[in-house]
Write a structure and sequence with these properties.
Strand order of the largest sheet: 1-5-4
Mean pLDDT: 81
Low-confidence stretches: 399-405
Shape: extended
Distance between the termini: 76 Å
Number of helices: 19
Length: about 500
């Protein structure tokens, strides 16, 4: 009976989904119904359940009925039989609604149920496989699982019909940024395909900024107020590109500075002779960052009066008295105005004495010898504050404005650059070690392959070697692996407790 009703349920579910998504785009059509229900004036503290989410819950019930059908063999050893032929039809429809309303957390249970009870995906039609892998890849991408997302999206793109240009373009919208985050830029052959039309102008500038190593230009391009970011934000890939690709920009900058200003080793030494490894002093990277900041400062001054859009604060160069010297950070309102105190405010007023008299002017105190001394009434123990201390720098976080080292101590920017390089080394995107006392990046073991291939390995190959140890994609049901044929004695335990050496009787 369920198999007969299944086409009707699928048809009604499609109608419900199309109606819910259409009304979600035109909320004015049902505004009067919401007012009758009293939902238009309900408090913001209570989370509203939208019409699309309600429709997704209805479709999910049909999905559960299909998934839990007991006909045939359950699990990965089964095949789509009975109502189970509608598992991915209902799942794709429900995922479409969940992505429309932005409730991706509700999809987690669906993927877990599919992994536990669904037959392998390869037994279902290609249209269902392509759609499901597309939504699975988007879900993994939104959860920062970029390598499994790349596998799912790549499989969806490869299995998509060659004439389905629009569907392929939608898949590439998420497959290209996923590969960029993993360190693999789109090839020229891919960008020349019909399905890549319109995507070249979106992603090629990002790839060029990453290769250039200009972190300020990269931040300006993906700033919140930038006109280019509206499309990325609408697709849900803006934050992933901003947060995950900036470390690649710093890798490109460090690589360029090392090529032009680093020590690549002594070429006169033979293969058996030992010498210092290639290295890069961090003060040269410091100078490169300050040059980038100066170039953007000059371009900002020259654009005044030409109606240039104002850059967002998070895309500007660091001009902070405290904290980061690389990026601009607004001062916390709790600490605003600390450097603007007037010297006259430091003079002890009668009101100040009255409020803090027991601390500033106590009845007595212990002197340097530990003897108790009486204090005249109203007299300050430490005397009147003097304005002569203004000639001294009392701020422990202050740094030299010219960026020079004071008595050999690294600047704040160099310490910040050191932490960025340490992050690159920890992630395996660079190889070598950092010296803290004499700040520099050293690349040992570069005699055979060279300093550049050793210290700056290919990003995609590095991530691939680390991630392919477990290529299982959550939510993608694969058929069980076929066991290799047994060889003679393979897999059996041989008891050698009574064995004797050869030649011993």
């Amino acid at each position: 009976m369920g198999v007969i009703v299944l086409p009707t349920v699928l048809y009604l579910s499609k109608v419900l989904a199309k109606l819910a998504m259409g009304l979600d785009r035109r909320p004015d059509l049902i505004a009067h119904l919401l007012r009758l229900e009293g939902r238009s004036n309900q408090e913001e503290a209570t989370e509203k359940v939208t019409l699309v989410e309600k429709s997704a819950n209805v479709v999910r019930e049909a999905f559960i009925k299909c998934l839990t059908d007991r006909s045939g063999t359950p699990g990965i050893h089964g095949k789509p039989e009975g109502k189970r032929i509608g598992i991915y039809l209902m799942a794709n429809l429900c995922l479409k609604l969940l992505f429309q309303c932005g409730k991706l957390r509700n999809a987690e249970q669906m993927f877990a149920s599919i992994s536990a009870q669904s037959p392998p995906l390869k037994h279902f039609p290609a249209s269902q496989r392509v759609t499901y892998l597309y939504y699975l890849g988007r879900y993994l991408f939104s959860n920062n699982l970029f390598y499994p997302a790349q596998i799912a999206l790549q499989a969806s793109y490869d299995q998509c019909h060659r004439q389905a240009t629009n569907q392929k373009r939608v898949i590439l919208t998420y497959l290209i940024p996923c590969n960029i985050i993993l360190g693999r830029f789109p090839s020229l052959q891919l960008l020349q395909r019909p399905e890549a039309e319109g995507l070249v102008d979106r992603f090629v500038p990002i790839c060029r900024l990453i290769a250039r190593g200009d972190y300020i230009a990269f931040r300006e391009h993906l700033a919140i107020g930038s006109p280019e970011t509206e499309w990325f934000a609408r697709k849900g890939i803006l934050l992933a590109l901003r947060n995950r690709c900036e470390i690649l920009v710093w890798r490109s900058l460090a690589r360029k500075v090392f090529i032009h200003a680093g020590f690549h080793g002594d070429p006169s030494l033979g293969p058996s002779q030992r010498g210092p490894p290639p290295y890069l002093y961090l003060n040269k990277l410091d100078a490169a960052v300050r040059w980038i900041q100066s170039q953007h400062a000059q371009s900002a001054q020259s654009s005044i009066g030409f109606f240039a859009p104002k850059a967002e604060p998070d895309s500007q160069a660091g001009q902070n008295l405290f904290g980061s010297q690389i990026i601009h950070k607004t001062t916390d309102w709790d600490f605003e105005g600390l450097g603007e105190l007037d010297a006259q405010e430091a003079v002890a007023s009668p009101g100040l004495i009255e409020k803090y008299g027991d601390y500033l002017a106590p009845d007595g105190y212990f002197d340097a010898q530990g003897q108790w001394q009486m204090n005249p009434p109203g007299s300050l123990v430490d005397g009147q504050p003097s304005i002569d201390y203004q000639q001294y720098e009392l701020d422990p976080y202050a740094s030299r404005a010219d960026g020079e080292q004071d008595s050999g101590r690294p600047t704040l920017m160099m310490r910040e650059l050191e932490s960025i390089l340490a992050s690159l080394l920890t992630q395996g995107l660079m190889r070598g070690f950092l010296t803290h006392k004499n700040p520099r990046l050293a690349i040992p073991g570069a005699r055979l392959r060279g300093a550049i291939p050793t210290g700056f390995p290919n990003v995609w190959q590095t991530i691939l070697a680390r991630e392919q140890e477990d290529d299982n994609v959550p939510g993608w049901v694969q058929p069980p692996a076929v066991a290799p044929p047994r060889t003679a004695g393979g897999g059996r335990v041989v008891n050698l407790s009574g064995a004797r050496p050869v030649g011993v009787q």
